[in-house]
Design brief:
By secondary structure, the chain is an alpha/beta fold. It has a single domain (41-62, 96-254), classed as Rossmann fold (3-Layer(aba) Sandwich), CATH 3.40.50.300. The protein has helices at residues 53-60, 83-90, 108-119, 125-138, 154-166, 184-201, 212-218, 236-239, 245-254; strands at residues 13-24, 27-38, 42-46, 68-73, 76-77, 93-96, 172-176, 204-209, 221-226, 229-234. Helix 4 crosses helix 5 and helix 6 (184-201) runs parallel beside helix 7. 37% of the residues are buried.
Length: 257
């Protein structure tokens, strides 16, 4: 893949979170989370189902409000952000949903054209066509442009979902369980695509997963969410080099050498 963006500063934070807390009724989900995401970094957030991983990225994208704590995304304070500022910020954040979130009644071309027509009204039809062709080439599915979502495999739908997320050229990518429901070979292909997207588009990404192969293959840095806090962080090997039974059980259940 040929790079299409300017150089990055890997010491520059794009997301800063301090003391984040979030509860639902009497259930404390996030209990004082601190997190930094740097330019050009793939950060994996590991954790069991129900530990607050998806809550975290919903707060980052402004879909949920924190109870307490500071959340700064691309220089915007999420506690003080106005609706107009939030709409502008969301154009810089790509959210790759677990179910791909494609419109089944639209062709792949129409699915990709929809966010462009809605948010980039300055583009001509020729420019939109060129952009659509570029993101389809980036995910390896140029031949599927006139197909319907129902005609695609699960892995192809994931790829098109990522392409639609990329179409507005976001600075941050949020992947919610990108390999969920996929067979092992297709999962490997999606992991490779996540890395290619990072390299080509210079995205800063948070990858929410409980798939340890995905974490190992995509994460520049890994943080593990346990009991509402990040208990472990570092490389894959560093995170699992521990006698903590909670971490060892997670490894033994999910992953074999």
């Amino acid at each position: 893949m040929k790079k299409v963006t300017s150089p990055i500063n890997k010491n520059q934070q794009v997301i800063t979170i301090r003391g984040l807390r979030k509860s639902f009724d009497e259930f404390d989900i996030l209990r004082g989370v601190d997190l930094d995401l740097f330019q050009g970094e793939n950060l994996v957030v590991l954790g069991r189902s129900g530990t607050g991983k998806s809550v975290l990225i919903k707060i980052i994208s402004g879909l949920l409000k924190p109870d307490t704590g500071q959340v700064n995304v691309l220089g915007c304070d999420m506690n003080l952000i106005t609706p107009k500022e939030l709409n502008a910020l969301r154009l810089k954040i790509g959210f790759s949903f677990q179910n791909s979130a494609l419109y089944d009644s639209m062709t792949i071309r129409e699915n990709l054209e929809f966010p462009l027509a809605r948010n980039r009204r300055d583009l001509s039809q020729k420019e939109m066509d060129r952009t659509i062709e570029m993101v389809l080439e980036a995910v390896g599915l140029s031949q599927s442009i006139n197909q319907m979502p129902a005609e695609l495999s699960g892995g192809q739908r994931k790829r098109i979902g990522i392409a639609r997320t990329l179409i507005l050229r976001p600075e941050i990518m949020l992947y919610d369980e990108p390999t969920a429901g996929l067979d092992p070979i297709t999962s490997i292909e999606i992991n490779k695509l996540i890395n290619e997207v990072q390299e080509r588009f210079n995205t800063s990404s948070i990858i929410i997963t409980h798939d340890l192969t995905c974490a190992r293959d995509t994460g520049d840095r890994i943080v593990m969410l346990l009991d509402g806090q990040f208990q472990r962080q570092g490389t894959f090997a560093e995170v699992f080099d521990t006698d903590d039974e909670r971490v060892k059980a997670f490894y033994n259940y999910n992953f074999t050498d």
